[in-house]
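Training component of the fellowship. As part of building independent skills, the fellow (R.M.) carried out the full modelling exercise for a liganded target. The chosen ligand was guanosine-5'-triphosphate. The inputs are recorded below so that the supervisory panel can assess the work.
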Amino acid sequence: MQLSFLIPICNERDTLAPLVQGIADHVGDHAFRILLIDDGSTDGSWEAMCALRDAHAYVDLIRFRRNLGKTTALAVGFERIAGDIAITMDGDLQDDPKEIPRLLAKLDEGYDLVCGWKERRQDPWHKTFPSRVFNAGIAKAFGLPLHDVNTGFKAMRMKVAKQLPMRGNLHRFIPVLAAHFGHRVTEIPVAHHPRRYGQSKYGFFRIFQGLRDAAVLWWQLKVRHRAPAKPVIDRALIGEAP
Ligand SMILES: Nc1nc2c(ncn2[C@@H]2O[C@H](COP(=O)(O)OP(=O)(O)OP(=O)(O)O)[C@@H](O)[C@H]2O)c(=O)[nH]1
Ligand SMILES: [Mg+2]
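Fellow's submitted model of the complex:
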């Protein structure tokens, strides 16, 4: 099986080398590629990414000229990758690559998307509490009983990755969208580590953005029965990897 890892990066210079090494150590016998997307980092992440690309034939890079957001990074990445399975991970090494075989084993049971549920989330209460409320609301509104809809750690069949309409901030709702398209969605608990390097990108107020987006999506999917369209991406904003 060919695995394609897709990792959006925004100022995560210090985690990149151990993250890439951790993935390479846990893919087993599978063929794999790792696509790192630099979303306008200013901390030297791009230079670190270039060093990794030069050292490892399985590393691919995309660079945005400025910060376009996580959803756009995933949109561009999903379009670019190939293979059988897409695996998304956060770039901050809070997700543990050792969980890769377990996510793949769960897909093998017949699922199309497996979410990594950060059951013991190593983040402060002002992140974990709103997240719990948000997830409970999503579960009820969309009839999708997941504990961690917005987890960055997911494995999915390539047909799911290619179908997702990644616009606005819909990266938080990938499982909702996949289930809407009839894909089989589930979750498994995964290890989660405290952030050791770099800085948190999302503050307390993302909950309000998430709630607004949830309300709009609920209206579109549950009332209008119409999924958001795929975005048109402005190629001029995507620089080429030298
Ligand atoms: N492409 C892109 N990715 C981003 C952006 N902001 C965050 N990310 C990615 O999203 C991941 C999660 O962001 P974090 O800041 O770690 O959010 P969090 O895990 O909820 O918060 P912490 O626990 O404090 O790390 C990061 O590792 C990045 O990979 C962005 O502006 N653009
Ligand atoms: Mg994090």
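The panel noted the following from the submitted structure. The chain is about 40% helix and 20% strand. The pocket of magnesium ion (ligand 2) is lined by residues 90, 92, 94, 195 (CB under 6 Å).
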